[in-house]
Design goal:
two-stranded antiparallel sheet; 4 strands; two-stranded parallel sheet; alpha+beta
Length: 80
């Protein structure tokens, strides 16, 4: 929400804001429905990328804990 509030500043600097989460696009849609006062992100207009495989998150080293690849879960990494 803080980035959305400063979106004009980013645009002035010719910067595109893109969110990224390790949740599915289905979860992200649910977040976009409730108001911020209800722990939602309604009003966010920038794109949000689903990083379900955690590839982007791993490349930026932003995951807490450890994860491993699981063949049973169609390649999804599971937290240990």
């Amino acid at each position: 929400m803080a980035f959305q509030g400063k979106i004009k500043e980013f645009e002035k600097r010719k910067v595109a804001v893109v969110g990224c989460s390790v949740d599915s696009h289905f979860s992200q849609r649910k977040w976009l429905q409730p108001e911020p006062k209800d722990s939602g992100i309604k009003g966010v207009k920038y794109p949000i990328v689903s990083d379900l495989s955690k590839t982007i998150s791993e490349n930026y080293d932003v995951l807490a804990g450890t994860y491993e690849y699981s063949e049973e879960l169609t390649g999804i990494k599971v937290r240990k």
